[in-house]
């Protein structure tokens, strides 16, 4: 076992020990190319002749780019080409520091630990320093050897030529990632770990581009229900939502949090609602949200708290037999028939009122529905009822359903019910209200729009792709199918990509194709993506990628040896955000951020643009604007963009006298923020859309979606179910509670899984303070401060003989992780929490018998896989989805990160 593998195998590691081991690796250069530059290129510590010391300390303003939800501004102090220290936020000039600090129209972007760790990350000893190739089996960290850039470029270009030649036989290029779509139709894994259920829901319910108002609008609310968002860790993409919720609390707006964990949002932001005797925190089981929301909707409807006028004017599918003549401007994505003028009628049994009636009929009336939701969720019937009455009676009220709440086995319907509750109470189009989700106003609201560049990167055109479910990547590589039936996959490829995969054949024909299968023979992993850790169940993916007879070649670009890079045949080291310049105007709509280059690129690292230029050059495509073959630097390009920049028309209505600074002034400041008074907060399209004009098939907010109901009938009769109903998804396409593939109901029923085990715990994932998804996972200082842990309730731990800080195994049919645990009362009994983004690391000494259906026949087979000592939660993620991917939305029918049935023990589960 190598030194680094021993390091990764330990679940507890002091910072001093980490640095000792990592330092030894740096000196020996046995892994990652940690040689300090090797050929004399710049490194963390490099002996140099004729070194001239720079006595001046330079300061450079820049920002933090990673998707933790916000952008923070920094002043970097640089001496002798090295970053010495950094400061945040306080360097931004204020006319009146006290007043400005409390103002809500300008936000001081103070950094958290992740931002302050930028220098630590930049100078990590495990930084990728030069190109490398794998000389052993994929995944073996000892097999990487240093090669030249020329060998790397030539090898990759040659593999491009091999795989692109396959389109003559297959009709497409059997690969994904990289720059292959310049040469033809490629394969494309679709789906996102944060929001695919959310987007699927929006497409059918309110329009995929519908947006909530800008975050400051919550200060106009009279009640905020925070549904499972920990705003102290994850800032919901654009705004500093923790800031706005703090200001809401200071203003006296009641805040209630619904969540399985006692998060810091519960303890620091939540207040309760004394007027309705509601506590600050409602502790619920995982995957029970849709049941609670259904019961709340029933209370609101039975007590006549719904907004009849809004429903009649803006909504479709609420009442039985609802009929509307569409005014929508769009058209059907398959038939291309315009929606405008079409008459839509809700089929019998599909309206929301009929759903509520059916709930009462099945559960014994009004009280029975509350008891049903209580049994699933763990909330009392009284609190569910009071929460419903409070939300239905308080106007305007903001129902804050973040992306995390939909990351469950019934997440699409959780989000649909959030949208439904906002609509049925008339909160959707109210200032201070909200549409039930957290997608704030879009780039159409950008305060600054950048100008273009006169030089185009290339005149080459790109082709389309054949989409497949990212959660089924492993199954698709092995078997040629995701969760679609062969005839569905063939029809989708033909309809959306003009590629005929052929009829399904039981015998695989890899030479000629045309057997109904979709192939992946090459994979290019992009920078800062960590595909292995973030895009679905890990073990099926790794089992498939290791099959060299199927996946012929893999390469990747990144800063560190992530789990994805470990599976590559060639690795290319990329620059970090501190080694290049760019402008960002799309992260927060009232702010523009300048990413100044702070230091020169270290070691042999190159920008992604340089790498792209060199690979495409060897394939006959001119990509000459960037890199050594180009005629413009990144600084030249962004100067030109700023020269053509304009203040957005939306902001001009707020401040018609606003002007842009010069590029030099903007660069020196690092950030340009424009104030927006609370009473002028930008309103999103969900609020401002006129009746009948929502971007859905009906033009209204759909409680029932005609598109999803009739989706496969549009493909032709052979794709319909015999009863004429929906084919693509196993659940009714309307707002409702949908039982997840596995969940608490299975625990109540004593479900046995393939291993013959009754798993009695549910796993929840959450963001960790030390990481932005997977980024920063390897920073030793943060890892020591916020270690990867499993959180378990004290009662559950006692029943298993587990004590605080024990190293435990969490396992199910799909895999096993080994991690330290925290025993606490801050998590609900029956639920464990493992933070997402932990880097998968295969144990070199322990294996586990997993049961996985890799061939798609519906029966799981036994595979011996390594125990994951990195603690990645999607090692335990099942790959049975609620519904196959819909190629129109580009997302699967289920992104199930939360709710998996698991068990936890102190001893190895296969040895019990």
Question: Care to describe what's here?
Answer:
There is one protein chain. Helices cover 27% and strands 17% of the residues. The chain is of the alpha/beta class. Among the domains are: 3-122, no CATH class; 196-441 and 686-719, Dimethylsulfoxide Reductase, domain 2 (3-Layer(aba) Sandwich), CATH 3.40.228.10; 744-911, Beta Barrel (Barwin-like endoglucanases). Strands 5-4-19-18-17-6 form a 6-stranded mixed β-sheet, with helices on one face. Helix 14 (366-377) packs across helix 15. It is globular and about 75 Å long. It starts with a helix and ends in a 7-residue tail after the last strand. Mean pLDDT is 84; it is low at 1-47 and 719-727.
Topology at a glance:
Blueprint (H helix, E strand, L loop, with lengths): L2 H7 L5 H14 L29 E6 L9 E7 L2 E7 L8 H6 L10 H4 L1 H5 L9 E3 L9 E3 L2 H16 L2 H4 L4 E2 L9 E5 L5 H10 L17 E5 L13 H11 L3 E5 L4 H5 L12 E3 L5 H14 L5 H7 E2 L6 E3 L17 E3 L6 H12 L2 H12 L3 H13 L3 E5 L9 H14 L23 E2 L15 E5 L3 H7 L6 H12 L24 E4 L5 H4 L3 H8 L7 E6 L11 E4 L8 E3 L6 E5 L12 H10 L16 H10 L2 E2 L1 H4 L10 H7 L1 E3 L11 H4 L12 E2 L3 H4 L34 H6 L11 E6 L13 H6 L3 E5 H6 L7 E6 L2 E10 L6 E5 L6 E11 L8 E8 L31 E6 L7
Parallel strand pairs: 6-17, 7-16, 8-9, 8-14, 9-10, 11-24, 17-18, 18-19, 25-29, 26-28
Antiparallel strand pairs: 1-2, 2-3, 4-5, 4-19, 12-13, 15-22, 20-21, 21-23, 25-32, 26-29, 27-28, 27-32, 30-31
Helix pairs in contact: 6-21, 8-16, 11-14, 11-15, 11-16, 13-14, 14-15, 17-20
Specify the CATH architecture of the domain at 196-441 and 686-719: 3-Layer(aba) Sandwich
- Which regions contain 5 or more consecutive residues with pLDDT less than 50? 1-47, 719-727
What's the overall geometry? Answer: globular
CATH class category label of the domain at 196-441 and 686-719: Alpha Beta
Helix count, DSSP H or I runs of 4 or more residues: 29
What's the total count of β strands? Answer: 32
CATH topology of the domain at 196-441 and 686-719: Dimethylsulfoxide Reductase, domain 2
Strand content: 15-25%
Question: How far from one another are the termini?
Answer: 26 Å
Largest sheet: 6 strands, mixed
Oligomeric organization of the protein chains: single chain
Q: In angstroms, what is the radius of gyration? A: 27 Å
Give the spatial strand order of the biggest sheet: 5-4-19-18-17-6
Look at the structure and name the CATH superfamily of the domain at 196-441 and 686-719.
Dimethylsulfoxide Reductase, domain 2
């Amino acid at each position: 076992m190598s030194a680094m593998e021993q390091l990764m195998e330990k679940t507890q590691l002091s910072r001093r020990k980490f640095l000792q081991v990592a330092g030894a690796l740096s000196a020996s250069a046995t892994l990652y190319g940690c040689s300090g530059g090797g050929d004399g290129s710049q490194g963390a510590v490099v002996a140099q002749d004729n070194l001239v010391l720079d006595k001046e300390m330079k300061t450079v303003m820049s920002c933090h780019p990673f998707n933790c939800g916000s952008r923070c501004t920094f002043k970097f102090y640089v001496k002798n080409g090295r970053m010495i220290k950094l400061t945040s936020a306080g360097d931004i000039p204020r006319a009146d520091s006290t007043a400005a600090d409390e103002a809500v129209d300008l936000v001081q972007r103070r950094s958290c630990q992740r931002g302050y760790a930028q220098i630590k990350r930049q100078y990590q000893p495990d930084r990728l320093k030069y190109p490398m190739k794998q000389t052993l089996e994929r995944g073996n960290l000892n097999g990487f050897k240093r090669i030249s850039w020329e060998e790397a470029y030539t090898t990759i270009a040659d593999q491009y030529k091999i795989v692109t030649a396959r389109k003559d036989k297959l009709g497409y290029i059997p690969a994904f990632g990289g720059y292959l779509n310049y040469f033809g139709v490629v394969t494309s894994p679709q789906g996102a770990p944060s929001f695919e259920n959310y987007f699927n829901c929006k497409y059918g319910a309110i329009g995929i581009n519908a947006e909530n108002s800008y975050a400051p609008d919550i200060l106009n609310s009279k009640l905020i229900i925070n549904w499972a968002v920990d705003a102290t860790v994850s800032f919901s993409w654009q705004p500093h939502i923790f800031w706005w919720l703090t200001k809401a609390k200071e203003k006296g707006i009641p805040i209630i949090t619904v969540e399985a964990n006692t998060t810091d949002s519960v303890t620091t932001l939540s207040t309760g609602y004394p007027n309705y005797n509601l506590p600050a925190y409602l502790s619920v089981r995982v995957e029970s949200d849709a049941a609670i929301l259904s019961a709340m909707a029933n209370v609101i409807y039975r007590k006549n708290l719904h907004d009849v006028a809004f429903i009649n004017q803006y909504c479709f599918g609420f009442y039985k037999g609802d009929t509307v003549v569409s005014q929508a401007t769009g058209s059907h994505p398959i038939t291309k028939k315009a929606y405008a003028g079409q008459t839509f009628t809700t089929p019998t049994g599909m309206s929301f009122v009929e759903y509520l009636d059916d709930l009462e009929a099945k559960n014994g009336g009004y009280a029975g529905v509350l008891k049903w939701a209580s049994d699933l969720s763990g909330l009392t019937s009284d609190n569910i009822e009071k929460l419903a009455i409070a939300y239905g009676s308080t106007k305007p009220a903001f129902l804050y359903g973040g992306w995390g709440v939909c990351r469950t086995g019934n997440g699409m319907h959780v989000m649909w019910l959030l949208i439904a509750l906002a609509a049925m109470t008339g909160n959707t189009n109210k200032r201070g209200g909200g549409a039930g989700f957290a997608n704030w106003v879009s780039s159409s609201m950008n305060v600054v729009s950048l100008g273009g560049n006169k030089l185009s990167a290339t005149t080459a055109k790109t082709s389309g792709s054949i989409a497949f479910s990212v959660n089924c990547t492993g199954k698709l590589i092995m078997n040629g199918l995701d969760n679609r039936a062969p005839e569905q996959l063939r029809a989708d490829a033909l309809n959306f990509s003009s590629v005929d995969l052929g009829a399904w054949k039981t015998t695989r024909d890899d030479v000629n194709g045309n057997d109904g299968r979709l192939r992946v023979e090459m994979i290019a992993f992009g920078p800062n993506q960590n595909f292995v850790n973030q895009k679905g169940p890990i073990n099926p993916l790794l089992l498939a990628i290791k099959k060299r007879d199927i996946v012929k070649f893999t390469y990747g670009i990144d800063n560190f040896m992530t789990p994805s890079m470990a599976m590559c045949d060639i690795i290319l080291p990329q620059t970090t955000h501190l080694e290049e310049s760019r402008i960002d105007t799309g992260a927060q709509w009232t702010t523009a951020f300048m990413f100044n280059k702070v230091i020169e690129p270290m070691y042999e690292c190159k920008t992604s643009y340089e790498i792209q230029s060199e690979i495409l050059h060897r394939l006959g495509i001119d990509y000459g604007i960037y890199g050594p073959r180009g005629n413009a630097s990144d600084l030249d390009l962004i100067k030109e963009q700023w020269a053509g920049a304009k203040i957005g028309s939306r902001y001009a209505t707020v401040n018609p006298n606003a002007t842009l600074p010069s590029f030099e002034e903007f660069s020196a400041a690092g950030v340009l923020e424009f104030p927006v008074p609370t009473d002028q907060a930008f309103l999103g399209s969900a609020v401002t859309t006129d009746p009948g004009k929502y971007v859905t098939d009906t033009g209204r907010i759909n409680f029932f979606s005609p598109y999803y109901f009739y989706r496969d009938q549009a493909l032709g009769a052979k794709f319909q179910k015999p009863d004429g109903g929906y084919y693509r998804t196993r659940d009714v396409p309307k707002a409702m509670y949908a039982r997840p593939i596995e969940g608490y109901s299975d625990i109540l029923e004593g479900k046995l899984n393939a291993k013959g085990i009754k798993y009695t715990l549910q796993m929840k994932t959450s963001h960790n303070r030390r990481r932005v998804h997977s980024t920063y996972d390897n920073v030793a200082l943060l890892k020591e401060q916020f270690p990867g842990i499993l959180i378990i309730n004290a009662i559950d731990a006692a029943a298993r003989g587990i004590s605080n800080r024990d190293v435990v195994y969490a396992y199910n049919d799909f895999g096993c992780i080994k991690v330290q645990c925290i025993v606490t009362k801050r998590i609900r009994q029956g639920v464990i929490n493992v933070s997402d983004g932990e880097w998968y690391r295969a144990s070199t000494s322990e294996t586990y018998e997993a049961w996985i259906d890799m061939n798609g026949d519906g029966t799981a087979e036994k595979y011996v896989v390594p125990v994951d000592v990195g603690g990645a939660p999607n090692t335990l993620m099942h790959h049975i989805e609620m519904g196959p991917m819909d190629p129109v939305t580009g997302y699967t029918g289920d992104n199930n990160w939360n709710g998996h049935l698991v068990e936890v023990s102190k001893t190895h589960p296969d040895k019990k």
